[in-house]
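The aim of this short unit is practical: by the end, you should be able to scan a pair of folded records and say something sensible about each. We start with the first protein, listed as its amino acid sequence and then its structure tokens.
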Amino acid sequence: MDESIWELIVKMFSEGLDAEEQDRLQQWFLEHPESWIKSGILQKARLVLIHNLEEERQQAMIAKVKQRIQEEAAAESAVLQDTSAGSFWHKSKTLVLGMLVAVLIIGAGITWWVHNQGNRHSAEVVWKTISTAPGVKSMISLPDGSTIWLNAATTLKYPEAFSDSMREVYLTGEAYFKIVHRTHQPFVIHTREMDIRDLGTEFNVRAYPDEDFTETVLISGAVAIKLHEQQGKEQLIYLKPDQKLIFRRRYAETPAVPASSQKPLKTFPVQEQEQVKLAPLQPLADHLIPEIAWKDNRLVFEDESFVDLAQRLQRWYGIPFHIESEELAHQRFTGRADNVSLTQLLQILQKIKPFRYQITDTAVFIQSFTP
């Protein structure tokens, strides 16, 4: 690690960083993601010191850090004196390591304290929940000026007022985020499988409980994604613009197949897929990005089974679909429909694979075509 980076980390804990130094340190962490976990722990301790402790307690903690540094330095002074090189770098690094150890030790105690403080004040947080019904999309503006577009059948939970140190929301469904970036107040979206941390960006998150995957699509800026308990440990992934991350659950929370009106459809064997996959975005000829086309009321589907497509259409048009043929349920479709009615969409699909349909007040019934 570059000596100047160590100095910045030390300064972050002692006297604080100016805006330019903050940007430099953040950029370094972006370029060295292997250090993120450690930095995340340190950042948590720093936020605790700055935002959650009274001034007197802050000074007491800082005094303990300084005392630990002095102890570390004294313990190794003989070694340093015998070192022929006696380099400033070797001495500085030793002091910094001592400081980091001290901060981590103190951080454990502070974290416990903050947890109890958080429980004490949790009742003061007023949460808002906004939900879109199937067939309905919505756009909202958050207190910080950020804008979020909600797809159909989506729920977003957010506080009435964000804390000074963190902006957190909880998402079930699909949403497009345009976030106002604040270095000292990160924005985090929590889903069941992952947490997505904004680093100044526009991105889409898809996390429906009845689908077997969660997907994050980055349009611009940067995001850091923390996967929950992936193979027994947390995993961190950084996305670049025009990339997407797909995390596949082994099993969906509820069946992804719309229930047949006569009997359950059989589950056909499917090819084993990667549980975590990074892939580039592939815009269409008119530069439309399929993963976020929904925001402009455009439906794009590529090699989707009728089962999976019907699940999307059920949310899109707000009416249940029932497929009464196993063979038809697993027929695959590729196409696009822009701002069309349900009837028009079904007619488009009929040109790909003939079938009969009936639309009632309560459901859409799909039957095999028999000449």
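Turning to the second protein, read its sequence before its tokens, just as you did above.
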Amino acid sequence: MSGLRRLGIDEIALRKGHKDFAVVLSDLDTHRLIGMAPARTHAAIEAVLNTWGAEVLSNIEEVSMDLSGNYRGLVHRLMPQAEIVADRFHVMSLVNQELNQARNALRRTPEALAEGVTPEAAKAALKSSKYALLKPEAHLTKTQQDKLVEVKAVSPKLALMHQTKEAFRTRFEAQSWAQALPGFLGWMGTAQSLYPEAVATMKRWFGEILQYFEHRTTSGVVEGINTRLKLIKRSGRVHQL
């Protein structure tokens, strides 16, 4: 592990629907799993990191993580020289989660619908609409495109939230943090009323979000490892049956 320079930190649920998590530590350059902590507490993670030795930790230059807030203080303490990068996919997921919450709320209690739209018609349009709203619009299938048109027709709020979500996605196309800065600030001002939780989190992590444009570091490698670990877990359950 002497060559470790870029570290990815993410978590994986040990049991679906429960609050049991393990923390996955990965080398973002070699795409290798290099450690796992049995819980997402600082003590559990620190115990694993300390086994690597001070020399390894002192050579880590970047750490990519989600925006949970659980690991930032630990990294500052154990790896003060490392720059923390907020993973762009987790930043985007903040927006998607709030959009999906609004979709689910409208499914339960249809309100503020377009003129002439009944609650029954709204519920029908919103059925199976999750991916039509959350996927990048450019990647939608024809069926999903049709569903998105249905959703926008019944709910002006979801139509505006979707438009605002797609606008946010383009902010990551900036070529530098200086170019990205006005776009992010402008988006947060415009989106405050639609995405209050996402905007509040972005404000707390603004520096780390802009670090993405310095290094283009993401935890996509970690997500791939997490996916393989989930497949292993499922396979293990099958063999136990």
